[in-house]
Fold this protein.
Amino acid sequence: MNLQQIQEHFLTMFDSVGIVSTKDYLESCKLHQKSVPNVEYPTLVVVGLHYPKRIIPSTNTYLLPSFYTFGSDYHLVLRKRMSEVMSKIPYDYIALVDNHPHDERIAASLSGIGFFGKNQLIIHPRYGSYQFLGMLFINIPFTQPLRSINTDSCGDCHICIDACPPKALSEQGYNVDRCISNFNQSKQVLSDSQIKQNHLLFGCDICQLVCPKNPKVSLHVHPEFNLSGKEQVAIEDLFTLSAREFERTYSNMAYLWKGKTILMRNALTLLLRQKNVSYNTMIETSLQQDYPLWYKKTATSILSLLQEIANQ
Ligand code: SF4
Ligand code: SF4
């Protein structure tokens, strides 16, 4: 089996595929001053799977995470598709999806899957940044790169820089500590400005939604990303279900991997935005329960603001 055939196998399951040498990837990481572990397998396959843009507004009873979480958990979807392809390829491999020490964006830009946008995402000529990325190191000799030549770039555009509420993006790069998507997925007390900035139950879509390189409509929906109904999270479930019950009810959703308490804390910020005081008693009850300090501190300050609103 040669690299061309391997690429064809992957193209039956993924929207974009690029193959480069592991050596080139490791060198590129060095150039980007990114420290990654050495890998012995000589060939690197980078895959992309498109996910559609779908906007579902929050209501007074249901809150919404970023649309990349809609449908089944992409970590599981990509892993399953990768192992299905590799079941036909007789070589040892290491498959990586998110949460690993490598840099899939460096790998994706090297493999021609897209260019590095100022919004810090890989932008594909057709799918824009609406792609999940995965990497596979395969123990097959590397012969030649199989990649598209990508000459596109952001150019003079700075729409995402201007649109980012906490000014996490700039021409010089990215300040992760300011990014909403970073702090609303971290187990921490939220500051007053973070409470004001947060606008989703999980993640932040702004720098993708404003990007002119992204498709305006959904191009296609892979069956695993069909809506399941669990995209809309009932506020009552957040405050009344135990962690285990919540995981059962919202099983297979990508927002679950950080646990329910992060969603509860983020939900508080959205209730404050909505001036929605209907859940004040449930928040009070949660403060008597066994939740971590970072949740209780944020909940205490938001609850006092919600109580003021209720008393007006
Ligand atoms: S995810 Fe949101 S906060 Fe983070 S860089 Fe993009 S627009 Fe800014
Ligand atoms: S909005 Fe403009 S600057 Fe930002 S990633 Fe898209 S093309 Fe690049």
Notes: Residues 119, 164, 166, 168-169, 179-181, 204, 206-207 surround iron/sulfur cluster (ligand 1) (CB under 6 Å). The chain has two domains: 3-52+68-138, 159-211+232-311. The mean pLDDT is 95.
